[in-house]
Amino acid sequence: MSLKTVLILLGLALATIFALVCVLLTRERSPRTCQHVPPEQEEMEDGQSLVFADLTAEEMFQVVRYLQGHLGVPLVEASRAKPSENCIAWVDVQVPAKAEVLRFLDSGGARPPREALAVLYFGKQPEPNITELVVGPLPRPAYHRDVTVQKYGGKVPYHRRAATGREYVEINALVHRELKKAPRFLTACCESDGTDLVTLTTAPRGFKSGDRVTWFVLFHNVPGTGYYLSPVGLEVLVDHGDLQVSQWQLRKVFYNGRYFASMGDLEQEFVAGALEVVRLKQPQADAVLGSMKPRRPPGPPGPLQFEPQGPRYSIRNNHITFQGWSFAFGMNPNTGPRLFDIRYRGERIVYELSLQEALALYGSNCPGGMSTRYLDGSFGIGRFAYELVRGLDCPYTATYMDRHYLAETDTPKTNQNSLCIFEHDSALPLRRHFSDSQSFYYGGLRRNALVVRTISTLINYDYIWDFLFHANGALEVRVHATGYISSSFLHGRGTDYGNRVGPHTLGTMHIHHIHYKVDLDVDGQLNSLESQDMEYEFVKDPWSAQNTIERPYLRRKRLKREDEAAFPLNVPLPRYLSFVSPNPNKWGHPRSYRIQVISFAGKHLPTNSSMERSVSWGRYQLAVTRRKEEEPTSTSIYNQNDPWTPTVAFADFINNETITNQDLVAWITVGFLHIPHAEDIPNTVTVGNSVGFFLRPYNYFNEDPSVDSPDSVYFSSEQDAGACGDNPLACLSSAATCAPRLPPFRFGGFLNL
């Protein structure tokens, strides 16, 4: 073989080796796709949690079909129904009585029949009313029973019904007809003919039972931006109480601090030169106050949370399990998220945890703002939980779930991807210690939690509802507020009621108060309430009698009656409040769960207010009552439109009954005072606007249960901390060297609007 041939072959070999090295290096730079490893199988229930499950779309359809064929009265679809007609307002699951459910879950009893609750507006009757019917059994209904009198002590008056979409359409048409009576004024004040002005409802609607008279605030509407920040100074009072739409009329007009009998009167004052007009320019989309459009091009992507071996939680139907936790989840179309049968290590801690109401109460020197007390349950906290944006509302790799509802239509609607579940790394130790004395070691555990989240958009505000499940057996409930502030037109002494946030925009002060029901069953149904706090005692030093020492001591107290367990809103709570079991832990203390409230609530409505009883749950930051099947909720969606004669008044629940060794419920109010400021434009941020509460084990266990977590880390000075066998953190460089499987981004949240 010639030297030339040898050199050629050697060159080819070197080229081949170089190419292989390049391929290997390229593959190393392109990490493998993460492989899903199913979570370690926890004991999965055999469909028992379906006793709490929301209705399926098919079940809703069957309920509607049954009602249409068995009531003997004509039913018009609610989206088209006039006030003088009959319609199905909404349908939800009828959760069985607790005793029935527990016999089924715990004692092998029969599965309770599956039923629905249907609410109907009967406008075409001699005495129009709201009727609630239980329909069953599902999925093939064969009976219905009227439960209205049983629940409320009588028929529910028709004027208490929530306003429907059709009602708002008719009101808007009336308002715009009236606006045409003041063309010169509108041109001068707003550079408008009225067609580009939008209305925002207020509530409640009047001053006494039977009223249905509502102030509507008018704003400039610029597509793609929040109109809530562009009031024009014009507000109108509409009487829409008559069953005949043709009889509705505009009762009063307000503009820039003055009241008028009609738009015609306003126009006359303007033409006569007797009206002071603030001349507003038509807002432009690229410069309008409150635009959320990005002002800079996108930068590099931020940190991304992902699961190298897939989710460590399991979801089956409406049931979730995660590292000792298990629970059923659902969504009420009115009051929003609800959880049932929450267990840790197989033991039930909470039977029901549900949102009850969200109150937003405003101040202003304009009639719309000063009269606003929104009870958001009547608008639909669950119904208006729309699709979540992957990667922003929740982590990109979270699990997203659809929710179905039936409200103001005969056809079920789906809010797809409107609830998310994910494991959250808080980047904080749950517990840790570095030992630098006697022996040298490090031990700790990351503070990871499972999060269940949904977000409701209620006109201008967005509420982020979170439920977090921690490794130490603690449950956290949290709500963040964001979205747009509501505003009034700035005039006179407007800044007595908020801050100026735009040329003519007053950010009006308001409170957000949120109410929850927590039916705790701590080591069984029979619990008591115990408070613990500290005091100081002055004692002589045992070793030095001429000196004294201030010694803190523990003051324990069993609260025996409901009146003792009703804690006013702005009075400090005992620092420790616990639901206690009759049974002790290993160390002789009652097995307990502590309630820890985190809240910055504003002041409650004065009790001499004519509408205070409708929100009397807000008197208390915490109230503990005997659980009763006839007291399932702290309020009613009917309270919004008749707060003067509330359908449900929470204050009546507290009647000084004994609460020792009883089935008890904790009713918790959290909230904050919001005085809008410049930084609330364009949106209120979630930072600092979060409140909630914890349910924490307190002597429930014999030690912190998180010691059994497989995520625990421990290594000593005598071990190689970089060895995977000694330290699981050292395994991450290989176990997590993979690229997450990111589904393509899709969004269909505008489909149901």
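Second entry:
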Amino acid sequence: PCLMHLCSLLAEKTGKVLGEFCRCYKEQYGVALFNSVRYEIEGNGGPQAQLLHRKVPLEDHVIYSGNLFQYIEENKKWRNRFCVVPHNYGLVLYENKLAYERDLSPRVLINSAGYKILTSVDQYLELVNSSLPGVTPKSGHSPILKCPTDFPLILWHPYARHYYFCVMTGKEQEKWRAVFQDCVRHCNNGISEDSKVEAPAFTDAIRMYRQSKEQYGTWDMLCGTETQVLSNLVMEELLPELRTTIGPRLKGKAQERQRTWIQISDAVYRMVYEQTKAQYDALTAKCEQGRPQMESTIRTDMDQIITSKEHLASKIRAFVLPKAEICVRNHVQPYISSILEALMTPTSQGFAEVREVFFKEVTDMNMNIVNEGGLEKLVEYMEKLSHLAFHPVKMQSCYEKMDQLKLEGLQQRFDVSSTSVFKQRAQIHMRQQMDDAVYTFETLLHQELGKLQGKDDLCKSIQRILERVLKKYDYDSSTVRKKFFREALLQITIPFLLKKLAPTCKGELARFQELIFEDFASFILVENTYEEVVLQSVMKDIMQAVKEAAVQRKHNLYRDSMVMHNSDPNLHLLGEGVPIDWGEEYSGQPEAEPPADKRRRAKQVVSVIQDDEGVLPYEVGTEALLQPCSPEPQELEESEPGVPPSSPGGVEAIREALAKESLGDGIEEAQLTNATPASPMPEADVTSETRMPCATPASPTPRAEAPSPPARAACHQPSDKETGEEMALPDAECSPPHPTGMTESGEGAQTEF
């Protein structure tokens, strides 16, 4: 009865939050639709980009695959896992490499939106200790997690379950950390920018809802898909109450209570996600159903709607602007230049590093072609260069420049909870600019190849095209950065102004509602118009600050008045053509190659450090592999009882047993059972050359071929469900979750957010 009551309470509170959000969304949907149609009719585009934009950047590729150890909570053991990161950045964990190659179902599918990547157990324990106040293990007691190596990788989430991995070397840890961070960065950016109505309606509804609760400023958990963001919104309100209600009732030692709390939080998060997804899908379907009628009204009455909105804005402006200008002058204007400088330095260094990495990769390729020669080598290097932007390790030097971003005292003054929002946005821009530069380079080079005579012509052409692309990159980089700076300044200052003005202005807004014609009430909102007036009060100062930085040529910014005349009028037409497949076009492969063979040759963006399945070092001891009160590992029971730990034979026997056990589970033909079985993983294997063990990122220097991996029986393209982008959750319960599809080792396949 107590659990049923708790489930009922959770459903009620979730429904209440979602009900308020749905009201906000319906209001914002009409405004977003009006703005979209108005932009389509009037048009107000900025400078035309000089670089081309690739539409499908990672088709038939995987980002990374390799072995690492995962801690299995159900049986408290560390197990070797083969992890694949496909083109949509899900984390897919298999029993071992053989299970992946044989198309067996993956063990775990993880969507990493909202997660933090930790490389220290101490960092993790600090977060865990703060999650449940008053529950901290006493000194000398075993912590909630022990790691058998010095190189952990922990995925921590404030609401969902945590994942524990470790590797054997620092190089492996750095590479996996870069890969995991790229997955988080990509999955956090889960709301499609291609949607010109639903996306702005959703983000504005979230903002309006939070402001109604007196929560202004940036929000760290605005990450993932719409359903994930909404689930985070519900959990933000639900978790404190849940902690107060359930926390005191938890029994056992401190680490056991912490572990139980993490499981309860995850179970509640799954329940909330399921309820949220159902309600949000119903909401969007209803809005989409009414869209044609609304759009027809907008197009018919566009002029009257604009006139009505301008009349409303003039009345609100007369009331609000004097107060807003005083607030801007006293509390915002003196700090704009400081905020801008704090943003410009690391961001511009990151974009400069993107330019440097691109220049170095192309120059190295050109030098290798001079030394080795031939179109065949060009094809090999271009296949690697074409995915440079999606190489987490090579791009890491660009991304890490943003780690310097510090707003210091400004962060507290303007109620900025974290700079992570701005860091991530800048990093996404860096990746996009790198890919645009690479795609433009390969498009121009591809166009020139038919006209070239010999190796010397090829090298001169590469150098000439590189210089052209760098000029285009400098122009686009300046445009992108200036837009980013303006948006970041608005994100920092507007919530601060709204909070300052709320006591004197917000209560008076209701009287302006009568100025809106009833027929246009779906497209004009007093609250949105008020925010636009506040934005106008500070926009002039922000534009001026960015303009002055460009006039002074700070950080290689271009003036707005500078227009780069398009020296390649047909370039954008080239970008609309069929994507270039260097390997297929120039490697002499037959045109009618079977689709299965083409997928089997799929390349891997990042080379593997260690492809072999390893075992944890015996020296760490059995105790380090287990949590307190966990059962003895079955693997160790098979070794000879009389062999001492120092005996080489004992070490070899244990390692052989571990390797045999790890491999044996994956050879079984039986499919894993689960309430939501994961579909088979696609054919995304790598060629022999990319599967070779390598201690450094892939470089232009050729490597010896290794035997090809065994062909897989069935090949499928990655689906969203496989990588957790869109998931069907099992029936959630209020009690701590237990795996539904258990194998002999006590592990179950899990589908994660």
